[in-house]
Amino acid sequence: xxxxxxxxxxxxxxxxxxxxxxxxxxxxxxxxxxxxxxxxxxxxxxxxxxxxxxxxxxxxxxxxxxxxxxxxxxxxxxxxxxxxxxxxxxxxxx
Length: 94
Fold this sequence. Notes:
It is built from three helices and no strands.
């Protein structure tokens, strides 16, 4: 297996996991369950950004092509972290 194939598979795996786990978080049974599912979204978003960076650093893709995807991935990551913080704050108050 070529390195580029391995990296591409990792991006597909972690990238698709973001949406699947966000959907699962929307159907959470409790606040704690939602936080746990959003933590997975956080981890998979960060991992996707990492693999995209590896594609650039390995010279397989130019940053100009990857930049919009990395930006969107980082925005998803930031929104997810903010949501987790909000949920934890609300959970402590109740």
